[in-house]
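The instructor's notes for this session suggest beginning with a concrete chain rather than abstract definitions. Hand out the sequence below and ask the class to guess, before any prediction is shown, which regions might be ordered.
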Amino acid sequence: MNLKRTVSILAASTALVAIQAPAWAQSPDEAPANQSAQTPQSEIVITGTRTQGRSRLDSASPIDVLSGISLRRQGTTELGAALAAIAPSIDFPRPSAVDGTDAIRPATLRGLSPDATLVLINGVRGHTAALLNTNGSIGRGSAAVDLNTIPTVALETVEVLRDGASAQYGSDAIAGVINLRLRQARSGGGASVTYGIYDTDIDTARGSRSVTGERAITASAWQGMGFGEDGYLTLSGEYVNRDPTNRADFDPRVTPSRVTGRFGDPAVEQYSLWANAGSSIGDNWKLYGWFGYQHRESESAAFPRLASAATAVSGIYPDGFLPLINTRSKDLNSALGLKGDLGGWNVDVNVSYGRNRIDFSTLNSANYSYGNASQTDFYDGALIYDQLVGGVDVSRKFDVFQSLNVAFGVEARREGFEIKAGEPSSYNYADNPAAGAAPGAQGFLGFAPLNAVDRHRGNQSIYLDLEAQVTDKLLVGLAGRGEHYSDFGSTGTGKLSLRYDFSPAFAIRGTASTGFRAPSLQQQYFTSVSSVVQNGIPILTGTYPSTSDVAVALGGKELQPEKSTNLSAGFVVRSGGFDLTVDGYRIHIRDQLGLSENIQASFSPQVAQLLAPFNVSAARFFINGLASTAKGIDAVAHYRLHAGEHTFDLTLAGNVNDVKVTKVPTSTSVLDPAPTLFARSRILTIEEGTPSEKVAGTVDWSHGALGATLRATYYGDVLQPGTTASADYRTGSHTITDLELRYQPAKGAQLAIGASNLFDVYPREVPAALNTTGVVGFPYYSPFGFNGRYLYVRAGLNW
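After discussion, reveal the predicted structure:
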C-alpha cells in the first residue's frame, strides 16, 4: 500500500488536468481524431456575464468550462462524480447508510452546503430534488439539485462560475453557479456501451477480502437532426444498470465473524431521455425549448437486524434480516422560450417547469408489532417538489465608453412541496402489539398522515446588470437584484466587478457582492414524526416545521434567508498556448440555517412542561443563527503543446479552502440556555467535512485516432466527527489516479479501456473500536468514495 501511495503522489506531481473544452454546441460530439478534449483560449461563455462574445479568460469572474467530451472520457457515468474528478472546487462525497441520500447524493462547491450553489440548465434555473438530507451526511439539512438527473451524453459543456452571483441570478448562488449546456446539433450522432467491474482488495479493520465483480452497464446514444434553415432537434438517451457495492467490515457480533451488512453504493436501474430543440421563426426570432425525463430506481441497505434482535419475527427471519430501502425517483425538466430582436433590444422570454417525485419503500423488512404476521415489503410514502418559473431578459449594447451592455429582466417563480403518507403498516402499531415492539417498518419508517403536508409559495424578482468596457484596459460591472417571497418578505443584493488588462498577457480582476439563499420549502415544512405508545398514550418524537405548535413552544420562528458577503481577487496570465488563472476568495455567511439536535423533554423540567401538552418526548427543527466564513484560493494552469502529429493538453488545477464556523446559537426565544442545538459533530462537519486541499491534473494525448488520458487527483485529509473527540476518525490524504486508452476516430467504430482508481486506493478504515456492528467499513465522508479500483471498457460508434 505504501508503494502504491508513493507512486500515486508522484503521478499527481507530474500530471496535469484537462478541464476545459469547446463551448459552441454546434460542434461535433467528440473531438476530431487530431484534436484533444481541451479548450481554445477564445472560448465563449454565457455564465457570469450577459455581454455576448466574452471568453472565459476575458471575464471579471473565474469560470471553468468543462467539455462534455472530458466528462464522458471517464469510468463513471454520473455527472456529479465526473465533475468532481476534473473540477478541483467541486466535491461529490458518496455517503452510505443515510437513507435517501444514498440514492440522491449532493455535490458541494468550495466546501459550502450543497444548496449554496445554483444550478442552471441552458441559463435557466433548475429545480431541486424533493429530498431533504436529514441524516449525518455532508450537506445535512440541505435540499439540493440532483446533478445525476442529467446524463453526460446530453451535455455539450458545463460552465462553473466560481463566484457569488445572487445579484445576477437570485437565490442559492452564494458559492457559485453550475450551468449545464445541452447539446445543440443539426447532424451527427453516436452510441456507446460501457461495461465495468470492480477489481479491488478490501482491507477493513477486522479483516481483508477481495472483490472482482459488482458490474455496471451504461448504454447511451444521441442524434442531431436539422430542419428548415437553422432548426435543430438533438435527442439523447441513457440506460444504467449498476450492481450494489459492499465495503462493510466483518461483524464481531456473530460467530464466526462475517460480513452481515451492506455498505456502499446502492443498486441502480435508471433511464433518461432528453430533447433539445430550436428554430428561427421569421427574420429576427427564434423558438427554443427542451424536455428531459429520468426514472431512477435505487436500492440501498439499512443496518442488519441479527436474529437476537428479531425474535418478534423469528418465524419469518430465523437468521435475522437486512432491510432494503427502495427509492423511485421520477424527475422532469422542461422549458419553452422565444428570443429575438425588438426595437434593437435582445429579448428572451421563457417558461420552465420542473418536478421531482421520490417514492419510498422498505423491502425485506418487518413491523415488529405485528410479530410473525407482519408483511415484509412496505410502501412508505412520497416526497414531491415542483417549480414553475417564468422570466423575461432584455439586453442591448450601446456605444458608451468603448461599449456598455445594459441588461435587465423580471422573473416569477412558484414552488410546491408535498409529503404523501405511506400505507398504515409502514408506520403504525398492530392492534395488539408484541411487548416492547417498535412501530413501523424496520430500516425506514413510513410517513404517517400527521407528517403529510402540501405547501406552496411565490417569488417575484427584478434585476439590472450593467457591464462597461470603460477603456481598452478597464472593465466595470454593476448588478443589482430585488426579490420578494410570499413567505418571508423581500431582500436585495448587489455586485461590483472590476478587471484591468495591463497587456494582452496579464490582467487583474476582482468582485465584491452580497448574496442570499431563501430557506427551501423542504426546510420549512418537512415533517417526520413517529409515535411510540406508552401506557396507552402515543408519545411523539421527530422533525417538526419551525412554525409548528411544538417548535414554537420551544422557540421556533419563521425561517429567514441566509445572507452572504463575497469578495474575490485574482489575475490572468496568457501567452501562446499557455494560460494561468489564480483567484482568492472570502465568503462570509450569516443567519445560516441548521437542523437542530433533538430537544429532549428530559433536559429540564421547563422543556418537559413545554412539550407535555403535545405528548412529545423530543423534537428538532430548523433555526437561523449559524455564521461561517470560507476562505481559499483557486488556481488553474493550462498549456497546449503540438509536437508534430502529437498533441498534448496539460493543466494543473488546485483549490485550497478553509471554512470556519464563527457563530453558533445557544438559545431559542424561550429556552436560554437551551440544550445543545448544534452538536460538535455538526460544526466540525461544516469546517472539516470536505478536503481543505484538492489538486487535480491530467495529461491528455492524441495522435490521429489514438488517444490517452492520465489523471491524478490529490485529496486532503477529511474529518468524520463523532459525538466526542474520541469517536472522531479521518480519511487521510490520498491521490486517485485514472487512466484511459482509446481508439477514437471522428467517425466509425470506437473503443476505450480504462481504470478509475488505478492503484486501488481507499480512505483509512474505520477503527474497530468505533465500529461495534462492523457495518461502516470506511468513512462515508470520503471525497472520492470507498469502492476501490474500477476497470471498464467502452465500445461505440459515431456517425
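Then share the key points. The radius of gyration is 26 Å. The chain has a mean pLDDT of 91.
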